[in-house]
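Try this one yourself first.
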């Protein structure tokens, strides 16, 4: 199992299934081209939280006596996520992820793009095995919206005029949709009643929103060794997240912050000063309050689900996302 995922006590009820998922992630990336094999499995070996496969397995466990049907879906969803990370690192020119060098840093942009494409194609091959048009349509729709979210983020770099709605729309597509889909798919292929498929889908959506907001907070305040990548990465790329949005509207140094955050040179040279200004403005506290409100909305959806150990586990994951430091 992933070294990170295995440390989560709330995964104990699906530990066996997650171990199978971990083995399948590596087995699925099967090609005779050595450079493609190495680059495609590089991120798998780095580990990860494996939240998306866990969401699929836990959502399915409410209704399926055996999770063997859900395991391929869990693998496919993690592959989709990993493909987006490989491509993100190319776009963001990132050199470190999960405490080790990125695919981009080791093999360069061209190999990284093809590795990301290959990983995504393998996920599609797995999904096709279900022979369900509804499942394929959900994945296709989510994949298109994820791409839209990334384009929106690129277009909004250094844009100090963007507002809260712009930010929330962006993170919805960037992160929340895939978490929502993970819960949705696990329940759907386990023949859950429609109203409970919807409840789990909304749970994943709200938790995905909270997850991305906390991720954006950690870019300001995390311990770099624990986070596995340098802090201030968003600022240096001109990505204006919720803490900075608050500071732009309510901070004491609004005019200076507007000038710096709209300048690629200043974002590189003054990143640490910008971090201090955002923290002093109360932007971190504000963003944390918003994240907690989404966690509360997620917990409210659990009320609609049957009493089961998976319900308790999903609640524990919500607690982890609210308080995580990596």
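Now uncover the answer:
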């Amino acid at each position: 199992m992933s070294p990170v995922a295995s440390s989560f006590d709330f995964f104990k009820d699906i530990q066996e299934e997650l171990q199978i998922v971990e083995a399948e992630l590596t087995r699925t990336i099967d090609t005779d081209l050595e450079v493609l094999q190495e680059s495609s499995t590089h991120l798998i070996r780095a580990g990860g939280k494996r939240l998306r496969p866990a969401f699929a397995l836990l959502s399915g466990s409410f209704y399926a006596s055996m999770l063997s049907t859900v395991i391929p879906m869990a693998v496919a969803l993690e592959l989709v996520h990993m493909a987006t990370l490989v491509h993100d690192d190319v776009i963001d020119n990132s050199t470190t992820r999960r405490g080790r060098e990125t695919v981009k840093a080791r093999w360069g942009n061209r190999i990284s793009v093809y590795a990301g494409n290959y990983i995504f194609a393998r996920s599609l091959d797995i999904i096709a095995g279900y022979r369900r048009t509804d499942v394929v349509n959900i994945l296709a729709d989510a994949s298109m919206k994820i791409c839209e979210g990334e384009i929106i983020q690129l277009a909004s770099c250094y844009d100090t005029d963007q507002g809260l709605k712009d930010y929330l729309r962006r993170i919805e597509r960037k992160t929340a949709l895939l978490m929502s889909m993970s819960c949705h798919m696990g329940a759907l292929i386990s023949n859950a009643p429609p109203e409970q498929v919807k409840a789990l889908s909304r749970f994943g959506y709200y938790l995905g929103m909270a997850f991305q907001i906390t991720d954006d907070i950690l870019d300001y305040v995390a311990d770099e060794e624990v986070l596995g990548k340098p802090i201030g990465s968003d600022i240096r790329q001109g990505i204006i997240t919720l803490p900075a949005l608050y500071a732009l509207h309510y901070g004491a140094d609004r005019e200076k912050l507007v000038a710096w955050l709209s300048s690629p040179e200043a974002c590189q040279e003054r990143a640490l000063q910008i971090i201090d200004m955002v923290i002093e403005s109360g932007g971190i506290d504000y963003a944390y309050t918003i994240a907690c409100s989404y966690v509360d909305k997620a917990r409210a959806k659990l009320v609609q689900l049957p009493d089961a150990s998976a319900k308790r586990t999903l609640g524990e994951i919500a607690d982890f996302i609210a308080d995580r430091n990596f």
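Discussion: The chain has one domain: 5-323. The mean pLDDT is 93.
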